[in-house]
Design goal:
Blueprint (H helix, E strand, L loop, with lengths): L1 H22 L3 H8 L10 H11 L1 H4 L20 H10 L13 H12 L3
Length: 118
């Protein structure tokens, strides 16, 4: 009787393992999800400025000189627009995510504007 129970449990575990192998995302899918792709847009400096004033100055200062968050005045010298887009969209450390507050195009516009700050 115990042999039947053990073989049944082993069979169920085997079936579950097979199901998981075919349903879990692969490395490529996980990497793609972790690194968002920035949409192609044309920079609109006025719109980026308005978005920054509405969302960023409380942590980064009115001149982006840094307060709670880091100084962003020359951030384009160290980070690309794609990197900035990923940080703004997904958040990083104490930086909150903005994917629920801003459209992808707005995030991309801010990332392009910040990337020019060198």
């Amino acid at each position: 009787m115990q042999k039947w129970i053990m073989s049944g449990l082993l069979g169920v575990a085997f079936i579950m393992a097979i199901v998981l192998i075919f349903t879990l995302p692969g490395k490529e899918e996980v990497a793609k999800e972790a690194k968002p792709t920035m949409p192609e847009i044309t920079l609109n400096a006025d719109q980026a400025d308005a978005i920054i004033k509405a969302n960023c100055i409380s942590c980064h200062g009115d001149q982006l000189q840094g307060q709670v968050g880091p100084n962003l005045q020359k951030i384009g010298a160290t980070l690309s627009a794609d990197q900035l887009y990923g940080i703004i969209k997904k958040g990083k450390g104490q930086m909150p995510t903005f994917q629920d507050r801003l459209k992808d195009e707005e995030i991309a516009n801010v990332a392009l504007w910040l990337a020019e700050q060198k």
